[in-house]
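WARN  no MSA supplied for this record, continuing single-sequence
INFO  ligand: coenzyme A
INFO  echoing inputs
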Amino acid sequence: MILRDMTEADLDTVLRIEREAHAHPWTLGNFSDALRSKYQCKVYESDGTILGYAVLMLAVDEAELLDIAVDSKRQRHGWGRKLLDEMMALARRHDMRRMVLEVRASNAAAIGLYRCAGFADIGLRREYYAAENGREDAILMGREL
Ligand SMILES: CC(C)(COP(=O)(O)OP(=O)(O)OC[C@H]1O[C@@H](n2cnc3c(N)ncnc32)[C@H](O)[C@@H]1OP(=O)(O)O)[C@@H](O)C(=O)NCCC(=O)NCCS
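INFO  complex generated
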């Protein structure tokens, strides 16, 4: 398994995974902006196959996880946890003291992943996301690194 920088050449695969994984996926423009913004955009690869990816924003001493996904065919095999651990290690190497993120209140898989990785709820943004039937709350989660 290797964690490497995401490039423009990965975006077809990344977008395919993103669209299968999320009801409200990031667009090509979102990923291109993330690459241009010098966020930490990483793919997690095994034998040349991208299993998942994550995007991290580093700000002073706090890292914000902006996106993380595992190919829907490969979920529930521990890759999400390994990828998240790699992103936390990366943040520590950049002297980040805390990692934070926002997650849809209905996203049981992601909330389960973050809780098992030591994240706790730190806030709630009511009706933050567009949803199929109106709006949906965002849960803010965080942990010390
Ligand atoms: C969230 C996601 C990255 C998890 O990846 P994964 O490789 O399936 O996760 P893992 O196999 O490493 O699971 C780690 C833990 O997370 C929790 N978890 C994972 N999937 C879960 C699910 N469907 N329901 C409940 N808990 C789940 C469990 O606690 C699991 O530990 P366990 O398998 O020992 O019970 C994956 O479901 C995904 O890509 N989802 C779509 C994208 C997304 O929602 N990203 C988060 C945006 S905030």
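DSSP finds four helices and seven strands in the chain.
INFO  checksum written, moving to next record
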